[in-house]
Design a protein that fits this description.
mainly beta
Length: 124
């Protein structure tokens, strides 16, 4: 990694509580977008290739006892690894202190590097 190279990064985050605007639906939505230039380094962040990450969460009350949560995270590295993780969770409130939860998750990754490391399969 070139220590003298200029590299920048930015991150945008946001959230909204829909109940602030309407009493009909109490959903909470949040998102983030992060862009790191090649060679960027900071505490907890270091990348040799340009990296873009984004994702979000939607907490959705469906009934008085049932709620759902959708999550999505995407990461794309220029000439490298692309990942996508998506998740759907449902919570059912049985009693005041008991909640039954179930969820599914899907993860995918694709290595677009010209020379993928031996532990990764090229392509999907």
């Amino acid at each position: 990694m070139d220590e003298d190279r200029d590299a920048t990064a930015y991150r945008v985050e946001g959230s909204i509580d829909v109940a602030e605007f309407t009493a009909l639906w109490g959903a909470r939505l949040s998102f983030y977008l992060q862009q790191l230039d090649a060679g960027y380094a900071a505490p907890g962040l270091r990348t040799e290739k340009e990296l873009r990450q984004y994702g979000g969460v939607a907490d959705l009350p469906l009934t008085a006892k049932l709620s759902g949560r959708l999550k999505l995270d995407r990461s794309s590295e220029e000439g490298g690894l692309d990942t996508l993780a998506s998740e759907l969770d449902l919570d059912y409130r049985l009693f005041d202190n008991w909640t039954l939860s179930a969820g599914v998750r899907d993860d995918s990754r694709e290595d677009n590097a010209p020379d993928p490391v031996a532990t990764r399969k090229r392509g999907t």
